[in-house]
Amino acid sequence: MAVGTKPLQNPKLGENMKGIFFSMILIFIVMFLILFIFIHKSLTYQYSSQKAVENRINSMSEFYEGIILDSKKSFDIVGKRALSAAINYVVSNGYPLESANTTIVELMENGTINGVQQGLMESSRLDDWRTTIEYLGEIQGFKTKISITDIIVQPESSFYLSVSYMISVNISDAAMKAGIN
Fold first, then answer.
1. What is the DSSP string of the chain?
2. Can you give the pLDDT at residue 178?
């Protein structure tokens, strides 16, 4: 080689380097896009799952609140029907009730006075309400268990009665392993 001259380069070698460099860039871009798609799918699935659980728990909570509100209305209706049935019994038979407060509780729970079914209480017992609510929960996919205890009827005044009670509600969703007590 002479001084001041450049060695000859193979022109194909430069083109090959450009092709290899372009292929590597293309591979990195494709890998990045594939990785981006997988991460996006994973995050979307997790977000969708979380939203589904949140929606189901909100449905359970709303159902619970509805049961509590409905129990107040049901006790009002069933209590008034029980009072009407007790009055009807006294008017029809001419005998006073032995214990008015416990008889009204018996009417509300069983629809009976001293074990005798009263027509006004047909399909109007607390157990009928409880069964209906549990069925409505089943329709929504909830296992619902309602327990009503400590029913106390007391006179407030000559014209008003007060009914107090304890209600226990257990709502669960076996598929999502969630519940409200």
1. --TT-PPPP-HHHHHHHHHHHHHHHHHHHHHHHHHHHHHHHHHHHHHHHHHHHHHHHHHHHHHHHHHHHHHHHHHHHHHHHHHHHHHHHHHHH----SSHHHHHHHHHHHSEETTEE-GGGTT-SHHHHHHHHHHHHHHTT-EEEEEEEEEEEEESSSS-EEEEEEEEEEEEETTTTEEE-
2. 60
